[in-house]
Amino acid sequence: MFPCSRIPTYCNRLSKIVSSSQKSSLFKPTFLLANHFSYLSGTTTHPGSPTYVSKRHFHPSNISKDDLYERLGVPKDASTSEIKKKYYQLAKKYHPDVNKEPGAKEKFFKIQEAYDTLSDDNKRAQYDQFGTTESAGGYPGGAGGQGGFSGFHGFGGTPPSMDEIFSQIFGGGGFGGFRAGGPGAGTRGATNRGDFRSSGEDLTSTLHVSFEEAVTGVKKQVRIDPVLECDTCSGTGVKKGAKSTKCSTCQGTGRQTFSMGGFHVQQTCGSCGGTGSTTRKEDVCGSCRGRGVVQGRETISVDVPAGVDDGMVIEMPNYGDAPIDGKGPRGSLYIKIRVDKSDKFTRKGSNIFYTANVSLSQALLGGEITVPTVNGNVDVVIKPGTQPGDELRLRGRGMKKVKGFGNGDFYLQIKVEIPKNLTSAQRSAAQALSDALENKTSTPKPPPSPPPESNSDTKPNDSNPDSSNKSTHEGFFKKFKDTLNSFHKDNPEKKE
Hints:
This protein is α+β, with helices and mostly antiparallel strands.
């Protein structure tokens, strides 16, 4: 055996394995110099002191099916700038302080985890090679594995605020965004901005309006926090009169290429931070610290048109973010409208539906009721014999059409109120009505025999023989109506 006095713990264990395996061909040690593997025991051995170290057995790590590039919605060859832009866009959409929807917080955690890996060149290269950020083969010093998100480092274990995210993307914290070394001090925002034009990212917001406001239209105030071009430097990131110069390290590409073990590896330029240009520290704009953009806050007026429906989206061009890597127009602001439900009406598109209570006497004999609509009260005639569930249509009394001309219709759904308790007089009237209706549908009885003729010369009565019967029926229906009306007056029910 070779001397192992300088690394007792490791070699004592290894010696036992070698001794028990010398008679077997299953274990074939490889002779290597210990100074190349001194990290295994944490001690330093003499260069001339050899030891036996077994061949490492690499095992594949569990690769998550949840691709980090897909989380951010970027291609695998996306630049660092593209990754930052996409992360900032998604962070503003799903940040717990902004989005209160269920699942938004978990979505933000996944986005943050993906950005932490893909924004770091070393972690990204390791992830691209092994599909995970765990150390390959178990070597010490590996980063935390994908799926093992251990919180927000540097933010006390809590999600970073939007201001912190802004500083994380664009730099900040005094002159922390500057990179020392190399030809000049590079800034993260001082790119050759005048040579590139792009539009800024879009913003989204939600605006709640009442049902009545949706009927008439309303002007509302909305607060947004867009990224704005710095007014001091006009987005250049440098003071007026100063200029940025092309980075001599990367020749303006923002990337450096290295050869490692026969492979070509690209990473962000360490001199300019990926911007492709450098600016002297004294020439950097003090308002934006060389970013070219600032985090703004605006309150804007939004004209909500009459007839707007729940879920509709209003686009306001040029109210989104300013581009973070060049000159160009701002993005758009998309405002999603949420319309509160009405206690009275039901809406389907531009049509409005309302349920009206009608008394039994009104349903039988007809009448007139006053109905509230979205455009004011309307008197509606109820025809005799109106049935429960009948629907009346009032043309043009609905919601104003956002697209097109005119208004929708107003539909009146009839609900007949049936009395639950009757007085003896009302019960008698109802029974009499029932008898009258049954007699009307039954076989008519023969008329009674005429009275005996008198000896006088009086002419026979030429009046209508049914006139007395008609008068009787009219008196009965009037009495029945008055009886039921008195019931509804004494027992009013709550209108729907």
